[in-house]
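Field log, afternoon session.

UNIT: design team B
ACTIVITY: writing a sequence onto a fixed backbone
BACKBONE:
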């Protein structure tokens, strides 16, 4: 982050306390604590600050500090091993209080603990409560907090960060929202979607709205189709219990992929503030053309990985994973054709795809442009040139444009070439992890990159009928695919054109 921006952001961070419910869990260890430590290394935490771990384990402060120390040595991106003295000084911010999430009295003890700590450390009661806990506990924890007045703002602001999935369906999301809103105002609720915290997702807005030459072609007149891929190389690993009740639709599409689609498709906001941006992105989600139960087969392809030999090692099939039902029909791969029914995008298909056990861990958006109206060199080309704009989110983040050029020599043979920008070329600025960015935003009170309730509802409204159709109609196929492949070949049929198929993205950002 540039020094002047860093300074401005630091100045906006008031003294505060961060409470992490579920502080001994996987997310806290792998993402949250490393992100807070990185903010500390970047000198972005306020002068008076405390992070209180609230977990169900009984342990004293010293044991907790030792645990956090080991966590950071294992998971922090930079600094923990290089700067041991920084790690030691960071630990002075770390505190712990046992909270069993289903035991109401524990919240009374937490309140007392916070009161004592805040006067001892001279920190006003500006508090973020991070719900790093299983979703079924969101409602219970919010209610217990309200019971002990941890939502009231008379002596400092209070914010809650809620992880996805927010609800399990449209109805449960509405119900959860109602219950949480009975104790908290919308401006206190931060629904986190870590894809929106990715630097390169934000860069999609900058690419579109700060350059004169992308936006004029960003519409149905010039765009043939849009492809969004979020593929993963690994399977579900130890998360089978959660994943088997979720599947790719709830785990990736309802939130991350539809949010990315909204950023790609939204109208330019008139000003760049939280509400204007979120107003525009929710309009996209509300414009998604509903897929009726009878249309699911032609617009949605679901798949599940099977046991595969990869590099002479047997990779488990999904049904053999721990905590997965042996006859599970949960989708680990999903490809969809989606239409955004508005003036800008009328009839332009958006193809989205996500899956586990695919050949690469890659997230990217590809804008395929329509061919030139008259193919002057058609007869002389080996292959017709294609124009693409590729927005690579990770890895090897960057932007590339792909176009045809004349091959030197006699005649007019055309070949596809590309111009690519790699984020790594802006070497002096390290790309922040999504959780660093989002935590800092919440500390400042900026909710731009957090999902608003209406957006969450709109995306559930779109995906729910598809999930219902799978449930009600067991004949809708679930295709099996081998690991280390790009999923079932049936996904190509979504293009409805034999010539077209999904792009196979490489780890290094190449465009061919
Ligand atoms: C999480 C999903 O939200 O996103 C995981 O629950 C998935 O299943 C992960 O692996 C992918 O995130 P990223 O940033 O690695 O693409």
């Amino acid at each position: 982050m540039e020094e002047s921006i860093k300074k401005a952001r630091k100045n906006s961070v008031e003294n505060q306390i961060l409470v992490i419910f579920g502080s001994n869990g996987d997310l806290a260890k792998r993402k949250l604590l490393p992100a807070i430590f990185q903010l500390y290394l970047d000198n972005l935490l306020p002068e008076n600050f405390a992070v209180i771990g609230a977990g169900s384990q009984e342990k004293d402060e010293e044991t907790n500090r030792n645990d956090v120390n080991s966590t950071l040595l294992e998971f922090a991106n930079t600094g923990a091993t290089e700067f041991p003295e920084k790690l030691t000084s960071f630990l002075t911010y770390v505190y712990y209080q046992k909270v069993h999430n289903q035991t109401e009295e524990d919240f009374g003890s937490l309140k007392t603990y916070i009161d004592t700590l805040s006067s001892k450390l001279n920190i006003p009661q500006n508090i973020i409560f991070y719900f790093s806990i299983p979703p079924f506990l969101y409602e219970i924890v919010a209610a217990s907090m309200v019971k002990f007045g941890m939502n009231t703002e008379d002596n400092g602001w209070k914010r809650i960060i809620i992880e996805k999935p927010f609800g399990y369906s449209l109805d449960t999301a509405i119900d959860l929202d109602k219950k949480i809103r009975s104790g908290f105002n919308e401006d206190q609720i931060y629904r986190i979607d870590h894809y929106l915290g990715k630097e390169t997702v934000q860069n999609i807005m900058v690419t579109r709205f700060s350059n004169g030459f992308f936006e004029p072609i960003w519409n149905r007149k010039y765009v043939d189709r849009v492809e969004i891929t979020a593929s993963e190389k690994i399977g579900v690993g130890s998360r089978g219990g959660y994943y088997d009740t979720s599947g790719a639709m709830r785990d990736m599409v309802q939130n991350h992929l539809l949010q990315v689609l909204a950023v790609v498709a939204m109208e330019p906001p008139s000003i760049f503030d939280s509400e204007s941006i979120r107003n525009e992105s929710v309009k996209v989600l509300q414009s998604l053309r509903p897929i009726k139960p009878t249309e699911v087969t032609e617009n949605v392809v679901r798949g599940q990985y099977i046991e595969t030999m990869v590099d002479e090692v047997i990779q488990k099939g999904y049904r053999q994973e721990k905590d997965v039902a042996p006859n599970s029909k949960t989708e680990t791969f999903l490809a969809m054709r989606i239409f955004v029914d508005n003036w800008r995008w009328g009839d332009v298909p958006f193809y989205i795809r996500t899956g586990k056990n695919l050949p690469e861990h890659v997230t990217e958006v590809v804008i395929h442009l329509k061919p030139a109206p008259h193919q002057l060199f058609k007869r002389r080309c080996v292959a017709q040139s294609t124009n693409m704009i590729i927005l690579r989110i990770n890895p090897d983040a960057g932007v590339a444009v792909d176009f045809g050029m004349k091959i030197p020599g006699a005649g007019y043979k055309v070949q596809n070439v590309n111009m690519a920008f790699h984020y790594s070329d802006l070497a002096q600025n390290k790309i922040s992890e999504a959780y660093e960015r989002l935590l800092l935003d919440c500390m400042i009170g900026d909710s731009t990159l957090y999902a608003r309730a209406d957006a969450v509802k709109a995306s559930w409204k779109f995906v729910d009928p598809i999930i219902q159709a799978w449930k009600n109609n067991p004949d809708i196929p679930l295709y099996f695919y081998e690991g280390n492949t790009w999923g079932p070949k049936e996904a190509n049929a979504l293009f409805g054109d034999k010539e077209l198929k999904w792009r196979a993205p490489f780890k290094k950002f190449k465009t061919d």
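LOG NOTE: The longest helix spans residues 453-472.
NEXT ACTIVITY: expression trials, pending approval
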